[in-house]
Structure formats: structure tokens, C-alpha cells
Amino acid sequence: MQTKLLTNRIPYTFIRGGYYYFSRRVPADLQCHYRYPRVVQGLHTSSPQKARVQANLEAAKLDAYWSRMRLAQSDVLGLALVKGLPVSGTSIEDSSLNTASEASDDGPTLLDAVQVYLDQKGKGRPKSFRLAAERVCRYVIKLSGNKPLTKYNRSDALMLRDWLVDRGLTGSSVTRNFSYVKAIINFALSEFALDARNPFIGVYHDRTAGVSTRKPIPVADIFKVQGKCRTIDDDMRWLVALISDTGMRLAEGAGLLKTDLRLDTDIPCVRIQKHTWRNLKTASSERIIPLCGQALWAAERIVGSDPTSQFAFPRYNQEETTKANSASAALNKWLKQYVPIGCTMHSFRHSMRDRLRSVQCPSDIADQLGGWTTDGVGQGYGSGYPLDVLQEWMEKVVNENGPLSLQK
Fold this sequence. Notes:
Largest sheet: 3 strands, antiparallel
Shape: globular
Oligomer: single chain
Order of helices and strands: HEEEHHHHHHHHHEEEHHHHH
Radius of gyration: 25 Å
Number of helices: 15
Helix content: 40-55%
Distance between the termini: 55 Å
Mean pLDDT: 84
Structural class: mainly alpha
């Protein structure tokens, strides 16, 4: 039993004959380059501490290697004309190295840039961070090629903008893609001490194009949804109820451990903190929220359920990362029959801000409860408001039954 627990605490490992083995599935899009769908290798140690370090190191190496493979397999015009490109049948990862070496005389390429960026800035970041950085670099390489950083110019940046817009991306999505490519190139220019301007900076586009304003859920509809949650009384409805009276993000709730729900204290509360399977959006997102109203009911149901799992919501935590997208799709599909058009699970978070306003909660207390960033140097001093003060305002919110104006 002890051996099993140790294994579960160390990702990508299993024990055989008293020794740890590294095991990781090859991503589906890269399995064509492997003889077997899984990488398995002995770590030559029976020490949990050493196994953890080695497993994390090998996992990081694989992530970096797979990143280069994905970026290199993008279709690039004129690829057949590149000198030294291996003949058909040679692995893609080998061709990417040869292509990079051809450009080495002119300095590091975009592939080199994204590699050093992920190696240095990607530590401790969620998988989505790496995927987003790789994705936008594939776009640039597809349009302009894997050139040395000093060879990219304004026309490359404008080509990327126009291509993203033509694909129908919203203004916010275009902004997000440019923020990644700008950050990658800026970081690489600094790391490699290159005296060059980043041509992807300052590219104009309509940031409001296709962007819809998220609507809050009216209080009357929140009460109706909460009533349905108590009637159905299953784990999915517990998650809805928990979010409805805390205002936490869906991913924050879906990735909770049962031990994050503290019901044996004078003030029941939930601790929002980083986990290896679910990161937090910002530093200010780490916080403690008093449990009141239907959130307290949901927490009690969660803690008393499925004693075999440490997770508050096992159905969304069966893999390496919390399946927040799956939770969003399923819950939004159920929720839309009870709320106005345009409202989603994230609308509960908007509603919580308005509910806090309706009881005249001070903005810095509201920011602490919601994990929103508060402006001002002074806000960074001290430990914030004590839990009993936060509870006082949350009790006012959940007991508020009057009409509420939710105009944005």
C-alpha cells in the first residue's frame, strides 16, 4: 500500500522490483515518429526523492524535444530548396536541426528562440502556456519560414496579422497571439544579446472585432439554478453551486482537492492554490474564500463523497491536468436552459462582482475575494483582510434577495 502511494505522488513513474521506471505516453500527433506509443525507461533508483527529480527532468526534456518536433513539421514554402535537407524517410526532428544549422551564421532562429523561451519561462507554467507559444511560432514559420531573428521584418508581422484576421479570429485572440510572439522574440533578443528591433511590436489591429461582452446572471436566475442544483444533487451540480456563491473560476473549482475545502474550522472556507495538475491564472488568484450559502452546502456534499479519491471532482482529474474545458462544455450545456442567452459558467464570476457592489462591499475586499489584481503600491503591503471580515461580506451577498441592477 505504501509503495502505491509513493508511486501516485511521483508523476510519470511506476515501480517494478523495488525500482522506479519512467513512463510517458507519446502524444498522438507525434506517434508516427516512434516505434512504440509509450516511452519507458528505468531510472535505476529505489529512492522516491531521486526518482521524482529524475522523472521531472526527463519529462521536461521530452516536452522540449516534442516542442521542436511540432514546430519543425509545419509546412513551409520552398522547404525542398533548403540546403542539406535530408531525403524522404529521414525524421522530421533531424531535418529541423539541419535547417537551424544552415541559418546559424546569421544568429539564432525562431525555433531557437521559442526553445530558450520555454526552457527559461515555461518552468512551473501550465501546459497551455507551452502549447500557445508553440502554436503562434508555427503560424509564423508557416507564413515566413524559420528565419534568424534579425531577418524578420515588418512585412512578416503584417502578414501574420492579416492571416489571423482572415481566419476569423476575434480581436482578443489576435492580441493574444501577438503577445506570445512578441514575448518570445524579446526574450531571445535579450538572452542572445542581439541588437535588433522586434518587428512584431506595435502592429495595429481592431481589438474589439468579434469580441462579445460576457453577461452576468441575474440574481433571480442564480437562485433558480441553485434550487435545481439541490434537486439534482450530483457532483456536476455541486461544482455549479460552489462557483455560484464564491465567484471562483471554473478551472479553480474543478481542480480542487477535498483538503482545500476546510469545514472543520470556525469559519468554513476554500483555499484556492496552485496544484501541479491545475495552475492559477495570476499571482493574486491564490486566496481563501469563506464558504456561505449554497457554496457551503456543495462543499459539505463534496467532502462526504467518494472516499477513494483525493479530488473534489474526480471526473475532471483523471489525467495529468484538470479537464476544465470538458467541465465548461458540459456545465454550459446544462446551464443555458436556466439563464439568459449569452450567459455561461463564467458569468457567475461577473455576477459575484455585481452582488458585492450591491451590498456596498469595499473594492479592495471584493478584489481579495475574487482574486482580482488591485492597483496601487500600498495594496502589496500586509496580508490582506482577516477571514472573519471576508465572511461578513460574503454572508451579506448570499442573503441579499432584493432586485439588482446588472447593467455593464
